[in-house]
Amino acid sequence: MTNRRSFLQTTAAAAFGSAAFSSQVTQAESSAPPNGLVHPGDVVLFQGDSITDTGRSRDKAAEPNNQAALGNGYAFMAAANLLTNTPDLKVFNRGISGHKVFQLADRWQADCLDLQPNVLSILIGVNDIWHKRNGKYDGTVEVYERDYNTLLERTVKAMPQVKLVICEPFVLRCGAIDDSWFPEFDGYRAAAKRVAEKAKAVFVPFHSMFEAAVKLASPEHWAKDGVHPSPYGAALMAHAWTQAVR
Known about the structure:
The protein is of the alpha/beta class and 246 residues long. It has one domain: Rossmann fold, CATH 3.40.50. It has helices at 2-17, 19-29, 50-53, 67-70, 74-85, 101-106, 108-111, 126-133, 141-158, 184-199, 206-213, 219-222, 231-245, and strands at residues 43-48, 90-93, 119-123, 163-167, 202-204. Helix 10 (184-199) links the parallel strand 4 and strand 5.
């Protein structure tokens, strides 16, 4: 037990201190304003699929900064970090497991626009390809990009001052993920970056971050099934996200 604890602690320290990881965080930070995105009194909203959802309580969803409502993943960890420094924020999580871009659009009024976020963070894309691969969806990367652009145009039209954070979809080569996912998955990553650039959003390069992280520990350490982060993977994501918005 002691050896494993030491390994995890060493791995986490190495991940946060490595030059490879730092370069990815710097890439994300470069598109943020000099004073950062998040200001006192802001409403911050995390949106996405199961990676954002992470078992969040629907019963507590209307309560900002509620741990149960924020789930157990990177969104909660990032929120905890933000609230340590800026306690008057209101942070919400509206991720729903299994969702794709068009399903975000279907619930956007209630789960985004009605909340009037000052900062909106979106991580979406893995289901757009995964559900296509398992025969449950017939979308393409072109549909993903088109729908994503349309969603953000709708968002900015309704909330012209909103500050956007677009997160790169990611997978790790383990569990449900093998080489057959590539290069198609890279197309979704590239599309997400184009969407971010078009919307002038901060882009958080999660996939690139994990590509650096697997040089320090196995893919299973970060996400056992290749898609859903472990606590260590979620902590790494939260660190990158908070660095990007600051």
